[in-house]
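Data deposition worksheet. Section B asks for the primary sequence of the deposited chain exactly as it was used as input, without tags or linkers unless they were present during the calculation. Section C holds the resulting structure in token form. Section D is free text for depositor observations; keep each observation to a single sentence. Incomplete worksheets are returned to the depositor.
Section A, Depositor: J.P.
Section B:
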Amino acid sequence: MTRIKGGITALKRKKNLLARAKGYRGIRSKKIAPAHEALMRAGRYAFAHRRDKKTDFRQLWIVRLNAAVRDNGHKSYSTFIAKLKKNGFQLDRKVLAEFAADHPQIFARIAKQVI
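Section C:
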């Protein structure tokens, strides 16, 4: 069987790698090895930060809820959530924060029912 050189495949792989590194500063967008290192690092950060984004949004919802809860006569966020669970409400923090920010009258009714 004849030998097949991998030049076309290797060039395609390198071309795709440099295309993904387009826009990076300096040599990271021009040379193969630095571009590969930059892409590997970017991938690690992207993976980790997709997880961090969930935490960041949950914290944002809690801050919004805490402000709305105090405006509606409750002592704190934690006591409001405890009463909410005790009364059997199935709304999560995301929905409650959306009500608090966009529909305050609906949130006020929920808060009154929890008291």
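Section D:
The chain has a mean pLDDT of 93.
The chain is about 75% helix and 0% strand.
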